[in-house]
Calcyphosine 2
Amino acid sequence: MTDHLSRAVISDPEQNLAIEQKESDHILPDSKMTPLRFRKRTLHETKIRTHSTLTENVLSHKLQFDGRIVSRNGRDACRELIGFFFTHDQSLTIYEYRQFGKNRTNVLPFIQKSIYSHQCGRRKGKQYRLGDFYVGATLTFLSSDHLSLPESIKENTLLKLRITNIDQIALDSLKTASMEQEDDIIIQETNDRLVFKAIQDVLKEKLHKRGVRILTGLGKYFQQLDKEGNGLLDKADFKQALKVFHLEVSEKDFESAWLILNDNGNGKVDYGEFKRGIIGEMNEYRKSYVRKAFMKLDFNKSGSVPIINIRKCYCAKKHSQVISGHSTEEEIKSSFLETLKVACSKSDEVSYGEFEDYYEGLSIGIVDDEDFVNILRTPWGI
């Protein structure tokens, strides 16, 4: 794979970048999970040409990051993105790694280089700046501004990208040189996080032992309520869902969370955002393994996997209960499939969102990252 990546080409001549990225200590803990951009290769070997007086030295003052699309659509959620934020004009650009055949990987434009602003939340309308870039940050764009996006993405008004990894050495260096001033929004965002944390702490005990069944059931329930199929529900729907799954919170906490989530004031909220706010979500390190496992199963890149393929690929041979003799491989496999199928809207296949819900629920009860990752590595061989 690395040799193929050394020949990858950015196909937009207006944005040719000379990049020689050295591997460093800011990569993910597992070398097998090293993001594509950190594997030593040259994306483009020609000199930078610009139509202005910008120099290569100025353009070199950039921050490089990995990203993923926040989506329950498997094809979109598993797209591999690489982005650059340029501090000289606070512009950014994002590319997508695309595989062509077995031996060729190209890096194609995804978000054109320009100056962009937040499209929702406390910072709506404010231009992106260096402080907005960190692992776990969400970048939002209007889908209508990017006509070349896939149709599945343009169906939604907002395109949400999550930063999954970042060049921490470059970030620290750029922050040292930056003159950015903090503002009152930081205090508001801190208070928002405290509101969500308080709710999550209340629900943590209820979710600890039933996380998988609650999260998979909740995901399926939201889909059933979503008659329009746009991923949006109103306040009454969410209150009803929390009641059905015995996840009630105080009226005060619910209203506080609703005010934050319903930032556009239209009375509807994306149920993925609601779930992430009220219940929380696994960190990006864990999420990267969930995506890798699904990508291994979804070799056709259709966004869903037939149950029969999951049965064939799931290996319970090294499961602790099998090793101890308390259960057989078939018993463990059947138990896993039975729980997973509860989340599925179709009886014969599992979507990425449903697969993610299962492991999101499982993640709640596991403190150590490596313990969680091993649960994925063992049955899926990743």
